[in-house]
TrEMBL record:
Species for this entry: Sedum alfredii
EC number: 1.11.1.11
A GO MF label: heme binding
Name under which the protein is recorded: L-ascorbate peroxidase
Biological process terms in GO annotation: cellular response to oxidative stress; hydrogen peroxide catabolic process; response to reactive oxygen species
Upper lineage: Eukaryota, Viridiplantae, Streptophyta, Embryophyta, Tracheophyta
Domain Plant heme peroxidase family profile as annotated: residue spans: 106-321
């Protein structure tokens, strides 16, 4: 055997056998020493992974990282989406979120996703899905989101004992789980986002008083088309804004936008929808999509899934080796 083959063989045996130890001793990275003893991760590349303070552990502790490291030449960069391949991490996250999430908490969870990711600005690449929402809870637009953060925190602290995970990944997955729990589409989420250590710039989320043209411009600046704006706004089917059952994710948002119950009537019907929701129904370009989604729920589910994936990848910085 060549030296490389010997080293690889040693790593495979040592790391894989220590992996079962790791799983048995939940939360303890008994294999860190083994990996570092062959100095596999002392290059600047590996150091840069560790910058987040957690991805380094992830590489050393996660079974995927270990097997991957053992089966490839050392220092070969991991593909940016390697974490997506790790079904084990993903199912642990989903399991823990499932324990703390209920239909009644789903709307707040989905809103939390938008308030983390929706700060993204393509012009200067600031903001986005980076977990910074936890530093921004005192902003007026984030009122009430501390409850959703607490729920994610519970699940995150459990996941962290097995494999360190970023807030951004946890929130992205929690939002997708909220949608599916309420009967919406199942949306697979790529993992590996890194958290920002600082708050995003202020004033990036759309105000509820925007007219259609400003709303379109606002979403365009975040990288979204008009169709994606309309599909994402369908998230308002959850919650208490009057778009059908508050805990059922379906296309009633669009059906009610077409009915316009607020026209020619005062009183309670004025409580239905936000000004931005109503503005969409007055815009020709948006109306085309509203009609499509009102008539075809599966097309809404497909387009919502794609737009949601784009939302939770907005401005994300990914762990790489
Ligand atoms: C189009 C621009 C948007 C505006 C102006 C907007 C604004 C708002 C406002 C003012 C609320 C009410 C908060 C409250 O009850 O106090 C709300 C609720 C909500 N928003 Fe949005 N939002 C927008 C887009 C989105 C998007 C893109 C998503 C997710 C993909 C989203 C998810 C939600 C959800 C699920 C709720 C209900 C929260 C609950 O009842 O707890 N919103 N939004």
């Amino acid at each position: 055997m060549t030296t490389t083959a010997l080293t690889t063989s040693f790593l495979s045996t040592a790391l894989i056998s220590s992996d079962s130890q790791f799983r048995a001793k939940k939360g303890r990275c008994s294999n860190i020493r083994i990996a570092s003893s062959v100095d596999c991760c002392s290059t600047s590349r590996c150091t840069s992974i560790g910058e987040s303070g957690e991805s380094g552990n992830r590489i050393l502790c996660g079974r995927r990282g270990l097997v991957f490291m053992a089966s490839l030449p050392c220092f070969l960069p991991l593909p940016a989406d390697a974490a997506q391949l790790d079904g084990i991490d993903y199912s642990i996250m989903k399991r823990e979120i499932g324990k703390v999430l209920s239909k009644g908490k789903a709307a707040g969870m989905l809103r939390l996703v938008f308030h983390d990711a929706g700060t993204y600005d393509t012009q200067d690449s600031s903001g986005g899905m980076n977990g910074s929402i936890i530093l921004e809870l005192d902003r007026p637009e984030n009122t009430g989101l501390n409850k959703s953060v607490k729920i994610v925190k519970k699940a995150k602290s459990e996941v962290d004992t097995v494999i360190p995970v970023s807030w951004a990944d946890m929130i992205a997955v929690a939002g997708a789980e909220a949608v599916s729990l309420c009967g919406g589409p199942t949306i697979p989420i790529r993992l590996g986002r890194m958290d920002s250590m600082e708050a995003d710039p202020e004033g990036k989320l759309p105000e509820e008083t925007l007219d259609a043209s400003s709303l379109k411009q606002c979403f365009q600046q975040k990288g979204f088309s008009v169709q994606e704006l309309v599909a994402l706004s369908g998230a308002h089917t959850l919650g208490n804004k009057g778009f059908g059952n508050p805990t059922v994710f379906d296309n009633s948002y669009y059906k009610i936008l077409l009915e316009k119950p607020w026209v020619n009537s005062g009183g309670m019907t004025n409580m239905i929808g936000l000004p931005t929701d109503r503005a969409l129904a007055e815009d020709k370009e948006c109306l085309r999509w509203i009609e499509k989604y009102a008539n075809d729920q599966s097309s809404f589910f497909n387009d919502f899934s794609s737009a949601y994936k784009k939302l939770v990848n907005s401005g994300a910085r990914w762990k790489t080796v």
